[in-house]
Design goal:
2 domains, binds uridine-5'-diphosphate
Length: 328
């Protein structure tokens, strides 16, 4: 298929773009390089430096490229913590970008949409692990913005007959030899832990150890970014057959922050000193996915499910690229 990948210069988007290309798809990457890196974009992809907040730029892309089969929408502000400080970046900018993209895509006759969604839809889950039909209580303006984009797609289906899959990632992590996580500033746990291992930071600050979990620190379900990419490809290929779907994506096993630190010490062979600070607003105590639906419907099976594999692949990338894409 010929697909547009927004956010294809970012961490998950660039790795999905590379996997789509490897699976024979034609890829057009659109990214404003706010967090993304030009060097992360696969060289075989068509490249557009454009901002989805600018409707005229979006319209221009769809004028230039006819016959688009699908849109994979990764581009977004993505930080739970930041969204509690700057809610309108999320409640306005993420929605405007999505609406501009979706409106022009529909006008150009695009019928397939894949949305990067989030576990932050589930602030008060009734069951753990969290099934795809769990009731939705966004945990932050970030989660709320993704929920609204899911609703936008549902209305588009009803009004225009387009199809969509919403993939709710739990904690994306890991890397490939060519691509990895490089945010500035970095907010995510595993790259920060690895920066400590590399001696680029003195220590990790654990955000709270008074949660109702086995060691007091937050429990998260880490999932390898290549397994996420596989899920996108399966979902894209299945849309015509299955219709619109929502899926949770994780390994079904949660790890505390202290457990992540211990595995990272083993994988890197280096000490990871840490201190405990206050809680980060917007963080739920525990998020673990049941991916039962996507396993059953699409045959998704993670190839890199262990924390050792996930942290190990991230470590390989960080060690080879200690300054991220600045080394490219
Ligand atoms: N975390 C932490 N210290 C850090 C960064 C993250 O204690 O410097 C915690 C964070 O509060 C959360 C977990 O690690 O409980 C995973 O956070 P991350 O930002 O990687 O992903 P999120 O769960 O927010 O999507």
């Amino acid at each position: 298929m010929k697909v547009i990948v927004t956010g294809g210069a970012g961490y998950i988007g660039s790795i999905c773009a590379a996997e789509l290309l490897a699976n024979g798809h034609e890829v057009i990457v659109v990214d404003n390089l706010y967090q993304g890196h030009r060097a992360a974009v696969p060289p075989e992809a068509i490249w557009h430096h454009a901002d989805l907040g600018d409707a005229a730029q979006v319209a221009g892309i769809f004028r230039q490229h006819r016959g688009i089969d699908g849109v994979l929408h990764f581009a977004s502000y993505t930080l739970v913590g930041e969204s509690m400080q700057q809610p309108f970046r999320y409640l306005r900018d993420n929605l405007v970008a999505g609406a501009n993209l979706f409106e022009h895509a529909v006008a150009a006759g695009v019928g397939r949409f894949i949305l990067s969604s989030t576990a932050n839809l589930f602030d008060r889950p009734e069951r753990m692990p969290i099934e795809a039909d769990e009731h939705i209580v966004p945990g932050s303006p970030y989660g709320e913005s993704k929920f609204f984009l899911e609703r936008m797609l549902a209305w588009m289906e009803r009004i225009y007959g387009t199809r969509y899959a919403c993939l709710r990632y739990f904690n994306a992590a890991g890397g490939t030899p060519q691509r990895g996580e490089d945010h500035s500033p970095e907010h995510h746990l595993i790259p920060i832990v690895l920066q400590v291992a590399l001696g680029q930071r003195e220590q990790l600050t654990i955000f709270g150890d008074d949660y109702p979990t086995r060691d007091g620190t937050c429990v998260r379900d880490y999932v390898h970014v290549l397994d996420l990419a596989q899920a996108h490809i399966l979902a894209l290929n299945a849309l015509d057959r299955l219709g619109s779907r929502v899926y949770n994506l994780g390994n079904g096993t949660g790890f505390t922050i202290r457990e992540v630190v211990r595995v990272a010490e083993v994988v890197t062979g280096r000490p990871i000193p840490f201190v405990v600070g206050p809680r980060r607003p917007g963080d739920p105590a525990e998020l673990v996915a049941s991916a039962a639906r996507i396993r059953a419907e699409l045959g998704w099976a993670p190839r890199y499910p262990t924390l050792e594999q996930i942290i190990g692949s991230a470590w390989q990338w960080h060690r080879a690229h200690p300054h991220g894409y600045g080394d490219a």
